[in-house]
Amino acid sequence: xxxxxxxxxxxxxxxxxxxxxxxxxxxxxxxxxxxxxxxxxxxxxxxxxxxxxxxxxxxxxxxxxxxxxxxxxxxxxxxxxxxxxxxxxxxxxxxxxxxxxxxxxxxxxxxxxxxxxxxxxxxxxxxxxxxxxxxxxxxxxxxxxxxxxxxxxxxxxxxxxxxxxxxxxxxxxxxxxxxxxxxxxxxxxxxxxxxxxxxxxxxxxxxxxxxxxxxxxxxxxxxxxxx
Length: 227
Prior knowledge:
Blueprint: H1 2-45, H2 49-74, H3 77-119, H4 130-136, E1 144-156, E2 162-167, E3 176-181, H5 183-188, E4 196-210, E5 216-226
Parallel strand pairs: 3-5
Antiparallel strand pairs: 1-2, 1-4, 2-3, 4-5
């Protein structure tokens, strides 16, 4: 029992010594200032050799404690510097990723604008003789085409678009194409019968339908892009 009490007492004394040392170490900057001011005061203002000596000792103890405090605090600096470097690197990486993302978005936007410009360029829509289209329209499916003629029939559909019959012959009645126009294009620019118009679109192929008289009619058809 005595042995156990002795061990506890020793541990308590060690803890107390550590606490006292830590307190003195924390107060060492204050001791350095007080010692320095006291040394000056008891030398110049009110000379007192005994108090001057005590002030000098207090200042020396404060100086040593301050040096130890700075040394202990300085041991953490490399770690902090590493952390700061990591944060800077992470920030730089984030900015680089953001820059790349913005560049990619800009590039995608530019590509879309270029595609839309090409899609709306009349030079990308050639003409093909009507005889060739009437004979081999299915073989040209998916190709671009432009036609110029007179609207001879307009039929609105349920989706907001329209289907037109356009005669491209010189007399304005023959060489007929069937043209499908979507709602977005049609609502922005409706057409009427007898309008003269150039249509730029994509060839659907040959399309057959029944006329009012009950006859079957087959004509080349295109899907409008713009007009």
